[in-house]
Amino acid sequence: MHDKITYDMGSVIQVEKHYPGNYGAPGMGRAPKRKRTPEDIARQNERNRVKKVQRLIIMNFREGDWHLTLTYKKSGRPATLRDAKRCVSKFLGRMRKAYKKAGYPFKYICVTERGKKGACHHHLIIEDIAAPALNTKRLVMEHWTHGTRNFSPLYEDGEFEDLAEYLTKKETKEEGAGCSYTHSRNLAMPVPKRERIHRKTWRKDPRPKKGFYIVKSSVVNGINPVTGYPYQHYTMRRIHDTAGTRRETEGRIQLREPRRMGSAGPPDHIRRDGEAGGTYL
Fold this sequence. Notes:
Order of helices and strands: EEHEHEEEEHEHEEEEEH
Distance between the termini: 23 Å
Structural class: alpha+beta
C-alpha cells in the first residue's frame, strides 16, 4: 500500500509516490524513527517553495512569456528593500489598470532583491500579450521609468524548475531571510489528487498516461532520509503533433490572446532527442 499524489497542470503532470509512515515499504518492517532536525525542516520548506512557484509558472505562463528584470538609475536607487517594494507595487498597479482597461487579466510573479553591490532590483514573470488593444512590452517601457528593463523570454527546459529555484532564493541577511516573492491573486494553482494505492510496490520505470510521455531525467527513485522509506517522483508531458505545434507557434508570433484562468499552462515542444530534458526533485 502506498500513497500517490498527482498534480495535473494540463500539458504537464507531476506525480509523487511514497509509503505512509505507519505502513512502510514491503520487507522493511516499521520505519526507523529519526527526529527531524531544523536543517531537515529548512530543506523541506525550501523544496516546497520551489515546487509551488514552479507549478504556478507551469499553470499560468508558457514558453515565450517574459522574465522581466527591472533596475534603478544610480541617482534614484531606493534606500531599502521596503522602498523598492513600494516602487514596484505602484508599477504593478499601473500595469493592472492598463490591462483592465483593455479587457485583459494581469498576471505576474514578482521578487524584489538586493544585489551583491547593494542595488535593489526586481524580477517579474508576466504574460506576453501583443494584441491591437494591448502590448505588454510597450506598456513596461512606458510605465517603468526608474531604470533599465531587461526582457528574457521564458524557456521551458526542465519545466521552469531552475527559474523557480532562482526566484525563491534567500534575500540578503541584513534585511530578512526567506522567500519574499509575491504574485497576483488571479493565478491558478493545481489541486493535488491524493490516492491510496493498494499495491505493495510501484514500477521503477513508470508508465505514462495515454497521450503523454515520461520525461526520463525527471524520474527519481530515492530514500527518505528521515523515514528510511522509498519514494518516487516523475513528470509527464503531453505529446503534440509537429504540425499543430508549428501552427500554434506561428499564431503566437502574430497575436497573443489571453487564456482563461485555470487553463492548461504552456504549450509543449518536444526536443529533437524526443525528451523535454526536465528534472523534478
